[in-house]
Amino acid sequence: MSSNIPTNIHLHQRTGILELNWDRHTYYLTAEYLRVHSPSAEVQGHSPDQAVLQTGKREVKISGLEPQGHYAIRIEFSDGHDSGIYTWEYLHELATHHDTLWQRYLDALDEEGASRDPRFIAVGR
Length: 125
Prior knowledge:
Layout: E1 8-12, E2 17-22, E3 25-29, H1 31-36, H2 41-44, E4 62-68, E5 72-77, E6 85-87, H3 88-96, H4 98-112
Antiparallel strand pairs: 1-2, 2-3, 4-5, 5-6
């Protein structure tokens, strides 16, 4: 890879998938995947043992992208999360290690007895 900066970034509005191109490689990352792997302290903590497993994010959407200089983008999500600054290097890592990282996430959910589905609170009449 000649540069960490993607040659193209496109948010597919209908599917909510973020398309990223580096050189001749194209990667498609879902909003859920990006949300549960947010680089924010809220998700990652300040050390690995402080990381917070993100649950119920299956339906989350990307509501906005904001450039952060020439080094990153800030992704705004439909659940209100907007504090993650995704550097080009981190996005490339998420893209190229997608299968491994996604499986680790699914395994962690399973270990915790947690779900990707949002929990809804029933409201009485």
